[in-house]
Every structure is written in C-alpha cells, then in structure tokens.
Amino acid sequence: MLSNLDKVLYPDAGFTKAQVIDYYQQIAPAMLPHIASRPVTIKRYPDGVSGEFFFQKNAPARRPDWVPTARIASPGSARSRDSIEYILGGDLPTLIWAANLAALELHAPMWRYPAVGKPDLLVFDLDPGPPATVVECCEVALMLRPLLAERQLRPAAKTSGSKGLQLYAAVSGMTSEATSELAKDLAERLAARHPELVVSRMAKALRPGKVLIDWSQNNAAKTTVAPYSLRAGSAPTVSTPVSWDEVAACRRPADLVFTADDVVGRVGESGDLFAATLAPGSERPLSAR
Description:
- With 289 residues, the protein is of the alpha+beta class.
- Helices cover 27% and strands 20% of the residues.
- Residues 283-289 have low confidence and may be disordered.
C-alpha cells in the first residue's frame, strides 16, 4: 500500500513522494529494460533529500512476496557478510514499491543475475574536478567515442544527474576484470595525451580543473546510478540519456540538466536514447525464485 503521498521529498522544488512515484511509473517502459535482472542497491531518503539517507543492498526483511530477489556472494562486504539478498530490478510493481520506500536513487552493476562478474556493459564514469564541469566531461566523451568505435563498440552517453557524464557500451564475452583493464587502458591513454584535461587516477590533488575517467566502476562489486534514476539534489534531476549531438553542443552545465518532467517529455518525443546499450534479449528479466 502506498503511504504518505503528500510528503515533500525535494523541499526546494516542492516535489512530493506522489510525484516521485508518478515519475517512476511513467518512465518505467524506458527504465526497466536497463535494470532487468540486475541486483539493485537503493538509496533511501525517508525524510527527503535534506534529511539523512542510507544505501540499502540487502532487501528489506518485510517486503511483499512478489519482490524478486537473489542471494549473491559478497566477499569483502563492508559488514562482513558472506552473501547479500539483493532486490532484482525489472518489473513495475517492484519499482513502485521501492519508490514508496523513498528510494529516490537506484544503482546497479554492469552485469545481470545470474551472470555474476560477466558484464553486458562497459562504463566510463566522467567526474569533473571543479572548476571543470560537465562541459569538460563532454570534451572527454568525444575523445573516448572514436577509441571505442575502433573496437566495434557503440557508446551511449548519459548525464550522472549530478555533475558528470557517463559512457556505456554493450559488450559480450568479457569478464569484469577484462572490462576494467580495457577502461583503464583507454583512460590512461587519454590522460597521457591530454594531461591538461584528463586524469585516470583518483588522487584528489590531481583533479582540480580536470576530468577523472573513473574506470573502476567496471569492478563486479561496484554499482553506478541507473539510467533514468532520480538523483537526490535540490531539484529532482535525473540520470538522463543524451544524444551525441547534445554532447557535442554542450557549452554550459545547464545544457545537460534534466528534471523528472523534462525526461518524461524527452522519452515521449525521442524514445530511449540509451537503447544501443541493450544486448538483444538481455533486457528480459530472469526468474530468481
């Protein structure tokens, strides 16, 4: 049962839980194929974005029977757990149930259950170090695109919904170790060619005014914000797929800021700009029960 629908979760925007749920219901046809059968980590804001939050990997003990889950080994877990009972993404009732828990953000790995550590996606997380912005991230994305094309990969771009930009490309027959090595190699190559703009190492001292190409998100244990997920900022911004024309045309950060209402309209007009990242048949949810 849905509850507290009039609760304001984004105070600066007056955006309520009812509007969060409505957004996820409207965007579900585009979003669900991207999270189908992926173990989802939810980021919950029970008191809204101005209150405390927590990441939840383990599925709540009190949950409906129809919420799909899978128990997955988690060596090295921060809580010393041998395994975690994850929620599996992919169906509308589970998405709405999570939204009703004030799970504003959904994060997912690059692989789908049960193919643990066998990714169907390669990701580059482009993170700007101030005063650099998403504008510089777009410059780096345009440098990465031909390097991926040389490997017969078709990257698609999305905003992080916060400060940066992310590139995904569909892959097959690779391990997470292999995608990590490929992403690291390309990141280091660009950092060597363009040291004034690009860094491939996390050290904070290296990052002001530059774009970090975070290749480590390909690690099987890591997650990245899902396509079409809300972000918990002052406004209900969304991690939004964007066209390469939009990436090339970006001249100011506001050019690539999209809210929930914007994104619903964009998908209605242009469809899923992230469809190229879906391997044929991979979007179908699997039974884990």
